[in-house]
Design the sequence.
């Protein structure tokens, strides 16, 4: 594959892999990389059995973490599908983010694994492996798109549920992991196209060389 196409394709795949890998780790291990976060302006809500008032809660791939007004951070146990229940200040009204909304976040590590396979395949200049790298890149892009759609659904549902808490004013925003997944999807699309174009250019150059060799052979006679 011509280096002008090969090198950018490998770089795109490497960047996409790093972004997806970090997003797959997420909370509770990387507290800065979450999917959605809620900041509470007033109302003193609380989480689960913990009666301490919180001012922020973050939703990650494996868990959620909340920040109490005293500056203490706490996280739920890591699980494939976690449930979060928030109460108002008087613990009379509550909303729940069920496991059905967080279970699908496990698609992130699956997309990460497929991206890693595409990255390994892209390191080869053999025509067969470059074709496989292109196909696997598009497969990883599809899985990443599914993961991003799940992120959007979680964000929209969290925002809707937070608005149902009586006497609690909040602001729900997308978080770094949300946008890292989106950027990874774009990079995987670019990588798949780059590898395809590189393989096509290889075939065209091979055909041109073949034609010239036959012309040179006839010229000898």
Sequence:
């Amino acid at each position: 594959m011509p280096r002008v196409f090969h090198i950018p394709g490998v770089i795109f795949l490497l960047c996409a892999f790093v972004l997806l890998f970090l997003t797959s780790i997420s909370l509770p291990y990387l507290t800065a990389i979450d999917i959605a976060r809620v900041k509470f302006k007033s109302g003193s809500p609380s989480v689960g059995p913990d009666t301490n008032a919180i001012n922020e809660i973050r939703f990650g791939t494996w868990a959620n973490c909340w920040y109490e007004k005293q500056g203490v951070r706490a996280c739920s146990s890591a699980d494939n599908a976690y449930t979060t229940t928030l109460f108002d200040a008087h613990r009379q009204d509550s909303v729940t983010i069920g496991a059905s909304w967080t279970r699908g976040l496990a698609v992130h590590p699956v997309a990460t694994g497929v991206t890693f396979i595409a990255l390994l395949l892209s390191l080869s200049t053999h025509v067969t492996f470059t074709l496989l790298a292109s196909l696997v890149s598009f497969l990883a892009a599809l899985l990443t798109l599914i993961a991003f759609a799940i992120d959007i659904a979680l964000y929209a549902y969290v925002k809707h549920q937070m608005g149902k808490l009586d006497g609690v004013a909040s602001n729900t925003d997308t978080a770094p992991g949300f946008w890292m997944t989106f950027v990874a999807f774009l990079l995987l699309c670019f990588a798949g196209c780059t590898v395809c174009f590189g393989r096509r250019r290889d075939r065209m150059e091979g055909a041109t060389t073949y034609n010239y060799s036959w012309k040179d052979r006839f010229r000898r006679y």
